[in-house]
Amino acid sequence: MSLTIDTHTLEGWHSTMCLIRAFEEEAIDSFRKGRFTGSTHPCIGQEAIAVGAAAALQPTDQVFATYRGHGHAIAKGADPKRLMAELLCKVTGCSGGRGGSMHLCDIERDFWGTNAIVAAHIPIAGGMAMANKLRKNNKVTVVYFGDGASCEGAFFETLNMAALWKVPLVLVCENNGYAISVPTHKAIPNADVVQRAQGFALAGVCVDGNDPVAVNQGVAEAVHRARQGDGPTLVECKTTRWERHSAISAGKYDDEEEAMKWKTVDPIPRFETVLREQGISQETLDQHRDEAKRVIADAIAFAESSAAPSPESVADFVFA
Ligand SMILES: Cc1ncc(C[n+]2csc(CCOP(=O)(O)OP(=O)(O)O)c2C)c(N)n1
């Protein structure tokens, strides 16, 4: 396969995918070692979506994600040290230690946050896109959510108003086949979420969510459409979730074969095959993996050595 994307860019995508994988592996390990409480929802196996989509954006485009959003924060340029410190609820965290794994934000990078409430961020993103339209600021808003979220009323209401008002919004459904322990075929009569776009007369495209190049193409066209003033697009990325819904035991697969499925579609080795065909050496790819592990080792050391917020600061950032 011959790609039109330059080698340097492809290498950068691979590095970021490795960084996200290393971050998530450390997050799971740290959670199991008791370094933080609550939970953590790994995006392992979904790195191609985060990286391919983010590469289609300008730095000032705005991103909203779910609790499975560590990878989206990293792909938007957030500092892994500050993200890891946030998981550990330290004062140096990107949300000052107030948010934890499910409430990350980095406003300087226009990463407007992850949200623990399924679908709640979709209308917020729609409102942001509406503001962009009114301000004529040429910015596009991207919102990521799962197949389960696409069954919520907030999703349909946002599709309706966003299509009606032609706001610059890109809705990216990460269809990983499960909502906790419920497979899509038990929850959605038509498991092709993209087809819902037709009912609202908006553009829709379905891409291979395990291929960063396919994701990038689909999202780039959607971003272009939004910036041109032609309204929102629903981009469905078909992908596969990792073994569990979260680092605690919820959402285990019933059968072992299903649990192993993600490994056969793991986007990182698959992308490496493409990169080798483009002339990128195995040595370079190995360096990316090693460098990712080093960056994440620094991040967890930074997080562990940071202080917790002081008891006196408990009322800080409280507005009401
Ligand atoms: C409004 C609401 N309902 C239920 C939950 C509990 N819950 C957390 S994640 C989740 C599954 C969502 O699945 P999906 O949207 O497919 O995203 P995924 O976790 O697969 O990325 C549910 C039901 C919640 N957090 N918020």
Which outline best applies?
globular
The level 1 CATH classification is Alpha Beta
Small-molecule binders = thiamine diphosphate
Question: What do we call the CATH homologous superfamily?
Answer: Thiamin diphosphate (ThDP)-binding fold, Pyr/PP domains
Instruction: Classify the secondary structure makeup into a structural class.
Output: alpha/beta
- For the residues shown, what is the average pLDDT? 94
Structural key phrases:
Rossmann fold; 320 residues; two-stranded antiparallel ribbon; alpha/beta; binds thiamine diphosphate; six-stranded parallel beta sheet
Report on this model:
The protein has helices spanning 7-32, 47-54, 70-75, 80-87, 121-135, 153-165, 184-187, 196-199, 212-227, 256-259, 261-264, 267-277, 282-305; strands spanning 62-66, 111-115, 141-146, 169-175, 178-179, 182-183, 203-208, 233-238. By secondary structure, it is an alpha/beta fold. The protein has one domain (7-306): Rossmann fold (3-Layer(aba) Sandwich), CATH 3.40.50. The strands form two sheets. It has a six-stranded parallel beta sheet with strand order 2-1-3-4-8-7, with helices on both faces. The protein has a two-stranded antiparallel sheet with strand order 5-6. It is globular. The chain starts with 6 loop residues before the first helix and ends in a 15-residue tail after the last helix. The structure holds thiamine diphosphate. Thiamine diphosphate binds at residues 66, 68, 116-118, 145-149, 174, 176, 178-180, 241, 245.
